[in-house]
Design a protein that fits this description.
This protein is an alpha/beta fold. The chain is built from 16 helices and twelve strands. It has one domain: Aldolase class I (TIM Barrel, Alpha-Beta Barrel). It is globular. GO terms for molecular function: FMN binding; isopentenyl-diphosphate delta-isomerase activity; magnesium ion binding; NADPH binding; oxidoreductase activity. This is Isopentenyl-diphosphate delta-isomerase.
């Protein structure tokens, strides 16, 4: 199996078996102000949200995780079936392997998602670094591969810097993103992969015409840590050490969300989102939706019902947060009062100077 495909299998194994979680997303420093007289019926609270013309039942995104190895086909099928049943959004992992390898089994690890979820909001995924090699037609091929409703372009340059075989030439990526955003047939989401986005980066992306940004901030799964484990397995000691050093690098998710939402009207908050309450806090900070990845892996290994149960739990947690802030809709939740404490407040104040 070629290197790109094997790497995808390695990633899932390491996430499941090793400690690759960080703290510091910042949601514990965000308190939503309690409303003792909410004057709404909890069960009538509206959790639907519009994402590029597609009405989701809840502002939940099953974040891009995998694809590109036959071992991941079952996982993607399970996640997609759950997205279909609950009407939430789902992304696939990088489609590079599907575009570059002539292997039907690899291709099926991606195409299975649309087979399993004919009506769900699904988005594809290519790397910003690959846009330096791909034309818009290649990205359209990735769209067609899963009949995608949108395309994510991921930014993972810290991960690439830790990989022994990583692509560390980031020159020209913004211009390539702007070209794709201008010409692609579906909306474009630019997403980080665990290190967050500053206001300045989100502004550059907004100016480039991207339709949404997914901040994927520091505080959840660390891809630097994952690549450190991979480097150790092949004896790349220097890369292993760099991966450990930068394990907790990045802009915390709560800060990224708040900053990005000041310059872009469609922000997805991911990175350390672990509950419906975290999603509620992200929306109060200005996000359109909240995304989770690793929390879905364990349930996906047990079957569709387990994934659906997690989505239902997240939705109830969100609905409860909305109830006790007196928010009858997500637009009202976006306007609810909150307090920022601790390190997150200090970070925000320092950034304002």
């Amino acid at each position: 199996m070629p290197e790109t495909s094997d790497r995808k299998d390695d990633h899932i194994r390491i996430i499941e078996e090793e400690d690759v979680e960080t703290t510091g997303a910042g949601f514990t420093d965000i308190d939503l102000v309690h409303e003792a007289l909410p004057e709404v019926h909890r069960d009538e609270i509206e959790t639907t949200v519009d994402l590029f013309g597609h009405e989701l039942a809840a502002p939940i995104v099953i974040e891009s995780m995998t694809g590109g190895h036959p071992n991941t086909t079952k996982l993607n099928r399970t996640l997609a079936e759950a997205a279909e049943r609950t009407n939430v959004a789902m992304g696939v992992g990088s489609q590079r392997a599907g575009l570059e390898l002539d292997d039907e089994a690899v291709l099926e690890s991606y195409t299975v998602v649309r087979d399993a979820a004919p009506n769900a909001f699904l988005y594809g995924n290519v790397g910003a670094a690959q846009l330096l090699e791909y034309g818009v037609d290649d990205v359209e091929e990735a769209v067609a591969m899963i009949d995608a409703d949108a395309m994510a372009i991921h930014l993972n340059f810290l991960q690439e810097a830790v990989q022994p075989e990583g692509d560390v030439d980031a020159r020209g990526c913004l211009a390539a993103i702007e070209r794709v955003a201008d010409e692609l047939s579906v909306p474009v989401i630019v997403k980080e992969t665990g290190n967050g986005m500053s206001r300045e980066t989100a502004t550059r992306l907004a100016d480039a015409g991207v339709d949404a940004v997914d901040v994927a901030g520091q505080g959840g799964t660390t891809w630097s840590g994952i690549e450190s484990h991979r480097a150790a397995a092949v004896g790349a000691e220097r890369q292993e050490a760099i991966g450990r050093l930068f394990r907790a690098w990045g802009v915390p998710t709560a800060v990224s969300t708040l900053e990005a939402a000041t310059v872009h009207d469609c922000v997805i908050a991911s990175g350390g989102v672990r509950s419906g309450l975290d999603i509620a806090k992200a929306i109060a900070l200005g996000a359109r939706a909240g995304g989770l990845a690793k929390p879905f892996l364990g349930p996906a290994g047990k079957g569709v019902d387990e994934v659906v149960a997690l989505i239902e739990t997240l939705t109830l947690e969100l609905r409860t947060a909305m109830f006790v802030t007196g928010s009858a809709s997500l637009s009202e939740l976006r306007d609810t009062d909150y307090v920022v404490l601790g390190r997150t407040n200090e970070y925000i104040e320092q950034r304002r100077r």
